[in-house]
Structures are given as C-alpha cells and as structure tokens.
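ok trying this again, last paste got cut off
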Amino acid sequence: MKASELREMSVAELNKKLADLKQELFNLRFQHAINQLENPIRINAVKKDIARVMTALAEKA
C-alpha cells in the first residue's frame, strides 16, 4: 500500500484500515507461534502498513 493512496482516504476509512491491519497482524503472529505461517516476511510488511496508516492519521489530525 502506497502512502499516496492512504492520504486520499478519509479518517473513517483510515481507522477501519488500521483495525483490519491490526487484526491481520494478530492472526499472523498467532500462525507464526503455532508454526503454520508460510510467509514470515508478511509480518514485517503488515507492521510497515500499520505505521503508514498511523502516519496518515497523524497528518490529518
């Protein structure tokens, strides 16, 4: 997800995206703990997406 795409979203959309990403991160960590995660690099990608969304929210505030 690009930062330019996030800047075009509304605050409500960003909050929903943030909640979805946090849920995905939780699920990935759970899968990693029970050794069912196929792509562990995805955890880092989701963390970076969360940071991008939080940065976009801070810019709008």
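PB: full thing came through this time. The chain has a mean pLDDT of 94.
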